[in-house]
Model the fold of this input.
Amino acid sequence: MRNPFPPTDSVPGHGRVHLALLPPATPILQTLTYQYPLKLISPTPVTITSSADNDSSHQVHTLYILTYGGGIVAGDTLTLRIDLDTTTRLLILTQGSTKIFKTPAPSTLSRQDMNMHLKPAAALVYLPDPVQPFAQSAFEQTQRFYIHHQQDVPNASICVLDWVCQGRKALGEDWNFFKYASKNEVWLVDGSRGPDETRLLLRDNVTLDASDDAIQTPLTRRMDGLGAFGTLILYGSMFASLATFFMEEFKAIPRIGGRKWDTSDDADDAIRDLEPLVIKRKARQKQETSDGLLWTAAMIRGCVVVKFGAREVEGGKRWLRSMLDTEGSVPAHFGERSLLCLR
Done:
């Protein structure tokens, strides 16, 4: 019997998203396609009104990246391309941790590749739940962000979180996977010099490989009690104040050899007389100590890269939400939904 349905050119695990701008200035999700085991959901966009100017408003589209069965099976490959037109804004979230299931052999990898092209003045916030590799799993991912430059127009802005946890702690898993590797790249594409003229701004690699013969220490011991480890990448004018905030807060961290920070009741009384930002900083630093959280920040060719680790995932969420809430740029431009994965 002849197949009555037209042939399809879709590929398993592939997805395509295009957030277009219709004249005069209406953002619309023009393309949203995906194929099993990848699943994409886009709820109704929300309109955000600027607090500084009540007459200024913009639409924010939200995209949830999911997988059938709640995780990535050994050997699966997910490939996603996202295009953002000029001035559009996209929020990418997940509905839970991305689980990486057990593989029959270390050589059988699960993969995820994402390529995101952002036109001038576009903005992207990607704040997912952490990747959760199960014991005896193997996973690699690459995320590339192409910032398309145009003369006299601000470059696109990105706020991207990439993090991983120790596994299923309730089952005793503690970095017991075979391999986890994640690579993030930020490229500047200058169309005035030709369509293929690109310049690498940032390349960040995280590789946790239990089979690395050059390192004899087991992976569990190498993580030194951390239950979650992550990277936050900031770029562009929209998140310039957030980037500055992270750099300034990093400079304010108590250093070894500096004054001794008293945590007694007398010290708490003295804090009440300080400025509100300083009060929040003192409270957050106290919580960081309780959560076993460590972090650092650096600026590289216009990108601010924040590295952090915490004893548990909840500690990492608590710290990151506190930082983003205190500065306020992300919820102001993308709404309270943007911090959903940090609750």
Q: What stands out?
A: The radius of gyration is 21 Å.
